[in-house]
Amino acid sequence: MIPSRQSRRILIRDLPVGGDAPIAVQSMAATPTTDVAATLRQVRLLEAAGADLIRIAVDSKRDVEALRQIRAETTARLSVDLQENYRLAELVAPLVDKLRYNPGHLHHHEREKSVEDKVRYLVDVAGAHGCAMRIGVNAGSVAPHYKERFADDHLGAIVQCAVDHCGLIDDLGFTHYVVSIKDSDPKTVIDANLRFAEARPDVPLHLGVTEAGMPPDGVIKTRIAFEQLLSRGIGDTLRVSLTVPFEQKGMEIAVGRELIDDIAAGRFRSVPPNFFDGLNIIACPSCSRVENTAFIELAEEVKRATAYADEHDLTIAVMGCRVNGPGETDDADLGLWCGPTQVHLKRGEELVGAFGYDEVIARLREELDALIARRA
Predict the structure, then answer these.
(1) Which CATH number is associated with domain 280-375?
(2) More reliable by pLDDT, 108 or 36
(3) CB burial string 47-69: b at 16+ within 10 A, e below
(4) Other beta carbons less than 10 A from residue 279's beta carbon
(5) CA distances (Å), 242 to each of 185, 187, 212, 299, in order?
(6) Which of 3, 185, 240, 249 is the most buried (most CB within 10 A)?
(7) Longest C-alpha distance within the chain, in Å?
(8) Structure pTM?
(9) Are 80 and 55 in contact (CB under 8 A)?
(10) Average of pLDDT values for 316-335?
């Protein structure tokens, strides 16, 4: 039930991706990169679970030094997430097998430089060190230029951004790259990847529903997207993003392989009636950007504390870091993004305030009750 894919075949070190290669399953370390022991434990846990590729976030030179120690202790295939600091590429490239950059983050540093120059730098670094690349477009952090250009067409903005960056890399003669276009809404993931695959069927695609949330909802959301895309021959590598305790991150790999096997065998599961009706809680899967591990317990408590509102068509977003949190909570009715000691509570794009982890739930319920009352 997974037809032949039209994408070209690339290599991430010795891992073939695209074309007739098996669909690769990957995950991301969910611990602070500077905690070398914990991150190395995550790498080994994910490797033991069968991960083909493991991503680690790097946002500072301290992270780079930690990554250097991690690399010395493992032969696992590693991908690095450059976050908002693309300039670290030349320091991390000798230590990893793939560089991932987000076009929506390239404007944060050296604003006087053009996007084209920054992409050229990344391609030069990747080429010099034999790294593959990923253009990682995230619907919650769209580059300002595309938000302005496609003010009323969010889908068009993220797809065109991906297409344009493929063009930039193609013009530089680099071919070992993949694209990902992710969102917390599986319907957006489906539509965006279908549209991109129509425009660039040759480019390998990495699939994922970002911030899918906690099981079982997170698995269901991911299954919806994967069933619709893999069954059309779209998708060459994937990640299941789940909000689970660090010691259970191997679940992402197990679920990913299970979904591939089910789809290949034609074991599709119908979507429950009205699955997207009622209260929708989205939560990021946690990664090394999380500055307080209490984020996961907070997400679970949000789900418990708001269960009384499950019949209301509202979205609550729970994000674990300052990188994606502020932008990816904008579209939610209520959003929480977590810092080291405080949780920032938002009402749409408006900041309500910052609260301690032990007091934010009560404040969230006040806002939720007020929102329900206004709608009534």
Answers:
(1) 3.30.413.10
(2) 36
(3) bebebbbbbbbbbeeebbebbee
(4) 18
(5) 14, 18, 6, 12
(6) 240
(7) 60
(8) 0.84
(9) yes
(10) 89
